[in-house]
Each structure stands twice: as structure tokens, then as C-alpha cells.
């Protein structure tokens, strides 16, 4: 194929990261699926400004259906007004806070053991990577209060249909591929990918 497009540059991190994790570097859900999610984890995306159609679906799900919204973004974006938790991390520390959430989930036994056994590989290696990322350690790196990180991890792991939504704030870093892979690992750890209204969704 000789047709070039913006994803080669802007979402190269997504293409590489999600292809390594899932075999495809694209959204795992349709836009229609956003209507039925019960939790949204939005990071590195000013969704209501950059993608107003999707942003409005998230807001409607929160206001009309009681969905939970977690925003992880150092900026005071519009969408944060609707969030149950707004986490404001230091710039460039995304891998740390994602690892911290996975640390909490595994330590508290909130991971989806059946999903991990049947659909994933190398769980032990993941644990070796994240075991030192305790909430207190992550707070020193990211400035995220440990109680907020713990609450976010519990909410995400405890939801039935959780969507991760991200954009350029995750991908356009020297660690962009690592950021994307970490989000994919978080979704797989909790069984939140491969089903309607739950998955990992990069936005351009």
C-alpha cells in the first residue's frame, strides 16, 4: 500500500504498542460501544475538545447512566469537570502511574485470574516489573497522592465494562510505545479487552 497517512507519525506508538499487545494497532471498540461502558479512564486526551462526538458520549454516559469517569491529565481539561477522580501527574511519568495501578490491583487480588490464564502470557514478568511501584513510590515520581491512585485502581479493576481512552498526550513521547503497552497491560490484567464496551481506544 502506497497511501501514507497521519497515523504513521502521530500514532506510530499506538501501532507498535497495540500490535505487540493485541495483534492490531487500532481501537478495540466502536464509537457506539462508548454508550454502554460503566467506567472511562481518559488520559492524554482533551476528548471533549478534540473529539466532541466521543466526548459527548462519555459525558452522557456519566450524567445519564451513572458511568464513572477517571481523568488522568496534568491539565484542567473540560472533561475533568465530570470526573469522579481527576489525577494530575507530572509530565512524562505515565508508565509510573500505570505500573502503580497494576501494583495495587495485583497486591489486592483484583486481577482477572481466569482471563490472565486463558488469554495472556508472561504474567510473572509483569509482576516483576510492577512490584516495586507501590503507591508511595509512585507518588514520589508522579506527585499523584497515593490514596487517589489506589481509588482509581480499585474502581477500574472493579468495573464490568471499562474503557481506556487516550490520545497524543500518551503517544507523542520518547516513551510513547512503553506508555501504550502499559495501558494494554492494565486492560489485560483486569480482563477489560476483547468484549463490547470494554477495551483500549486511541483517538486521533
UniProtKB/TrEMBL annotation:
Coiled coil: none annotated. Residues 1-203 form the Molybdopterin oxidoreductase domain. GO terms for cellular component: membrane. Gene3D superfamilies: Dimethylsulfoxide Reductase, domain 2 (3.40.228.10). InterPro entries: Mopterin_OxRdtase, Prok_molybdopt-oxidoreductase. GO terms for molecular function: 4 iron, 4 sulfur cluster binding; metal ion binding; NADH dehydrogenase activity. Keywords: 4Fe-4S, Iron, Iron-sulfur, Metal-binding, Oxidoreductase. One of its GO terms (biological process) is respiratory electron transport chain. Pfam families: Molybdopterin. PANTHER family: FORMATE DEHYDROGENASE H, RESPIRATORY NITRATE REDUCTASE. This is Molybdopterin oxidoreductase domain-containing protein. It comes from marine sediment metagenome. The lineage of its organism: unclassified sequences, metagenomes, ecological metagenomes.
